[in-house]
Amino acid sequence: MLTPDGASFAIPSGGSWIVHRYEVSDSGSSYAGMWRLEAARRQPPYASSNITAVLEDMIGPLRRLDDTEGGCAATIGMVHQQVKTITAYLSRGRTTSPAVRRRLMLASAQFNQLAGWMAFDAERHATARRYFRAGLTAAHEGDHTDLVAHILACMAYQAVYCGELDEANQFARKAVLAADGCHPVVRALTSSRLAYVYAASGNVHGFRSVCEKARGQYQNAGVAAHGPEWLYWFDAEELEYQLAHSGLALAAHANSDPRRYIAEAEVLLNGKVASPDTSTPRDALFHTASLARVHAQYGDLGSAVRIADLGLRHVDLVRSARVFNVLRGLDKDLAISQGARRDSQVRDLRSRLRELKT
After folding, report:
1. CB of 326 closer than 8 Å to CB of 290
2. pLDDT per position as a tens digit, 57-89
3. Kind of pairing, strands 29-33 and 18-26?
4. Where are the alpha helices (DSSP H) in the chain?
5. How far apart are the first and last CA of the chain?
6. What is the Cα–Cα distance from 260 to 281, expressed in whole angstroms?
7. pTM here?
8. pLDDT at 28
């Protein structure tokens, strides 16, 4: 916006005025004035205890959003906004006390871990790694060893998914080491991720041994079984689901007796597969689709169709690219299965799978 005598104003889309310069000249006399109201570049206000409490209160709802819909552009964006806000406070030292800074550091670790998991779930793997590393930095600086262990365990799980087993093994072992001395539930969680690495590597003995170790660690938690607040989702049932999923990976990579591992995993997954509960639809669909895939790969088309049907009850609630990739993999497995073309139920399932939109 131009004004007389060389004055210049800019009006941002947000509606607040930013005055860059204002100068007036008059023949024989002059005066100059300048406003520097640089709203767009202004430092953030100091984070108070109350502001920090509001940010902390957002962690739980955003975690539960991930439990239901999974990772996608919309959900990642919501978490990223909180990451940006906290990073601005911390990087510029804009906190009212050391105690507030410590709380923000913990919130930063949690938000970055959550954003990393959502990005992984959305198949944005490079982005996920950046968030995980930022979360590790915050957790280290804030001396939150349990979160360090958890984030390393997440990175191990992602590495297995991406086929990077050597890296996965390193992350999982570091997670177990970091968890030593932490709450027993944290130790059980990290052990379950190490079991997954062993399973994906076809290490039957290592898998069996660490599974029992994880169960023992969880049982040792006793009445304090829930551990840190951010591990609200990890209970005895969830531990069994994780170990069952690892068993499916073992079936795909072990040299012998794969159907035995499938049967064992199906028993453990039965609660997640059969339940109409929609509190965690993303995980329910992921586990059922994974189990259906393994059945299809080993020629049990009837079980594959039955289990996939149960999982598809949740599909309208889920936005996870990772889960939809598993479903696309199921369609491909069915396509090459012997007898699939003659089976009307398989044809119907494949038709529904191809109609799905992420």
Report:
1. yes
2. 999 999 999 988 888 899 999 999 999 999 989
3. antiparallel
4. 49-68, 73-91, 98-121, 125-141, 145-161, 165-179, 184-200, 204-220, 236-253, 258-274, 281-297, 301-311, 321-335, 344-355
5. 45
6. 27
7. 0.82
8. 42
